[in-house]
Amino acid sequence: MVRHKSGTKEAHSKIKANDSVSHSISRFTEQDIYLFKQGNHFRLYDKLGSHPMNVKGETGIYFAVWAPNAAEVSVIGDFNGWNSKSHKLISRSDMTGIWEGFIPCADIEIYKYNIISKHDNYSVDKGDPYAFYWENPPKTASKVWDLEYEWKDKKWMSRRKKINALQSPISIYEVHPGSWKRVPEEDNRHLTYRELAHELAAYVKKMGFTHVELMPVTEHPFYGSWGYQTTGYFAPTSRYGTPQDFMYLVDHMHQHGIGVILDWVPSHFPSDEHGLAYFDGTYLYEHEDPQKGFHPEWKSSVFNYGRNEVRNFLISSALFWLDKYHIDGIRVDAVASILYLNYARKQGEWTPNKHGGNEDLDAIEFLKKLNEAVYTSFPDVQTFAEESTEWPMVTRPPYLGGLGFGLKWNMGWMHDTLKYMSKDSVFRKYHHDQLTFSIWYAFSENFTLPLSHDEVVHGKGSLIRKMPGDEWQSNANLRLMFGYMYGHPGKKLLFMGCEFAQWKEWNHDESLEWHVLEYPSHQGIQNWVKDLNHLYKKEPALYELDFSNDGFKWIDVHDWEQSILSFMRTGKNKGEIIVIVFNFTSVPRQDYTVGVPRGGTWREILNSDSEIYGGSGCGNAGRVEASDVPAQGKDHSISITLPPLGVLFFKSTQPPKIKTKSTTTVKKKTKKKRKSK
Fold first, then answer.
1. Which end of the chain is more exposed for a tag (fewer CB within 10 A), N or C?
2. 471 an active-site residue?
């Protein structure tokens, strides 16, 4: 594996002896240029940026950067004493605005582009937009780096199409790499990518999650932005290690059967001078008009989605992580802010589109093209939209008029559920519709149910702090809410620390409160989430038909007076049925009748009030027998003890025997043979 070290005295002497740049070398073909101009080149990371090359026996670095409004572009770094006069790139003659050149020196590591603009002689030193690696912040230079790595996840890659399928269980553990766990005895440092790989994989596998979602690891100058103010769209942050270290993290996860989703931010970028902002002395990546190019909520720049080269850049970034890092999916941040011209703007602060509407027509086409490119090249991954409005057909194909995402975060479910659960159980009966409303639209999109980092920051408090009542009740309420989440149609996402009821609000500068697991109540919550995950993966009825109303049937939606809900989940095999009953009050219910579709024994396969979860042990001794008494439109019913602030999962032990066509045919043939004899 090639490694490039900082410039040495030998390198400096070589540069001084031969300070020219070879301009006869290019990585661009005519087809590349055609696609680039059309806005359809989505593998630009193989062309632009810095790439080690061997030309006629001489090793060096090829550089290429898009800066159409530059008068001069030079490569500067340790190797030439940051001298902007010695290694100038040349502008291509094909009107692409690409500057390129080959520097015959193998010892280049740290570099920037010095750009002198055609406008007002503006001069600036910029990091490489396509750099694979950057200096550790607060330093801001790019690094020459190869991405050679020997992957060991062949088994995972061969079967991930099934693992990532919409008909499969997807339970996501959202993680901020820098604060999941820290090392207090070593000045509270965060874990490296490789350290995180081993500890996180073991924990996630034990807890039963199918995927991890990493908050943005793309390089970012301000740690407190959590990665959402990105400057390096092709580089994992150097805070935790090298690109190969990050590859090791993904590889190790895959070897342990865990998928990796990357939080990706094409909605805005920071105005740091070394980044994309005002790149060549003009508003190159962003709009010049602040009503389009400035984001008032995040004080950052908005991409110009109507520009071909910007679409090339962003879609190339998305495909880069799927290609070079074997990422299994991307969660696209803040899709609503991309779609709407008036997002976070008051009247008079935004410019309508050509039809007079508030939709960003260029952004819509960008998102469609993004998803088409992803699923064309990587049909075994998924894209997730964090979209907080009622925009239609987010997860429907572009050829049907949709945006083309695989899944969408169900923000409505999240807000309604948290609002309902925060109320004292005495008053919940007056807000019953906040629980039931989500089913009215549950199958309009392919939804993921998120309880993400956004709900435990900025003074909102931790999830356990949102739950009302004394300590026992708040823990029971949290278990109840998690049970509702896993029973409800839709894939699952839970932010780190919530699975063991961390008391404190999340702080990116601190480790999670792992010490609270010394207390039984926190162990109980953790055990509950673990068992929910393992049951979820085991029972197809809980995931196979997440996006079809064929997989969900109400048993009783009307018992608002007692704040009780009951419904059934079924899979493709209609004989597989899970009945789930919820009691959202602190009053236990004896001899509560629930209609069921068949007789026989119904096993109580999960009970949130079990003592191992910190509950009171109220339940049904593991099973109940169905009677022939009809109830709630079903031919049979069960009489159960429903625990306070509890949820029960039941499964029939006697699924009906279904005669297959082939079996019936064989029997008929046998009878005919006997008659003939």
1. C
2. no
- Reported as a single tens digit per residue, the pLDDT across 515-562 is 999 999 999 999 999 999 999 999 999 999 999 999 999 999 999 999
Length of the chain: 677
- Residue 20, in any domain of the structure: yes
CA Rg value for the chain: 29
CATH code of the domain in which 55 resides: 2.60.40.10
Tell me how crowded residue 168 is: count the other CB atoms within 10 A of its CB.
Answer: 16
Rounded to whole angstroms, the Cα distance separating 86 from 60 reads 16
In the chain, how many domains are there? 2
pLDDT in tens, 622-676: 999 999 999 999 999 999 999 999 999 999 976 555 555 544 444 444 444 444 4
Tell me how far CA of residue 216 lies from CA of 13, 43, 321, 405, 659, in angstroms.
40, 21, 12, 19, 51
Q: How many other CB atoms are found less than 10 A from the CB of residue 155? A: 11
The confidence score (pLDDT) of residue 575 equals 86
Under the banding of pLDDT at 50, 70 and 90, the label for residue 38 is: very high
> For residue 601, what are the β-bridge partners?
625
Closest CA to 508 of 190, 206, 264, 237: 190
Q: Which of 333, 416, 445, 604 is catalytic?
A: 333
CA dist., res. 305 & res. 267, Å (int): 10
Report yes or no on 128 lying in a domain. Answer: yes
Tell me which of 386, 455, 544, 604 is the catalytic residue: 386
| CA dist., res. 629 & res. 246, Å (int) | 59
Round to whole Å and give the CA distance between 350 and 342: 6
What CATH number corresponds to the domain at position 575? 2.60.40.1180
CA 160 to chain centroid, in Å, comes to 16
What pLDDT does 23 receive? 66
Query: Domain ends where: 114, 143, 172?
Result: 143
- How far apart CA 388 and CA 390 sit, in angstroms, is 7
Q: Distances from the Cα of 310 to the Cαs of 37, 38, 40, 41, 280, in angstroms?
A: 11, 11, 11, 11, 14
DSSP 8-state class, residue 615: S
Segment 627-634 long-range contacts (CB within 8 Å, at least 24 positions apart): 627/599, 628/599, 629/593, 630/595, 631/593, 631/594, 631/595, 632/555, 632/556, 632/566, 632/593, 632/594, 632/595, 633/595, 634/555, 634/595, 634/596, 634/597
Angle between helices 361-377 and 308-324 (to 10 degrees): 30
Tokens of 301: 């720049």
| Other residues' Cβ atoms within 10 Å of the Cβ of residue 549 | 11
Residue 28 lies in a domain: yes
Strand partners, 569: 552, 578
Instruction: Tell me, yes or no, if 107 is annotated catalytic.
Output: no
Amino acid 31: pLDDT: 97
In a domain, 43, yes or no: yes
291 has pLDDT over 60 = yes
List, for residues 317-361, the tens digit of each pLDDT value.
999 999 999 999 999 999 999 999 999 999 999 999 999 999 999
Helices 520-538, 193-207: axis angle to 10 degrees equals: 80
The residue among 143, 176, 195 that closes a domain is 143
Measured CA to CA, the distance from residue 128 to residue 149 in angstroms comes to: 22
Task: Note down the domain range covering 108.
Answer: 9-143
For 353-383, give the DSSP string. -TTS-SB-HHHHHHHHHHHHHHHHH-TTSEE
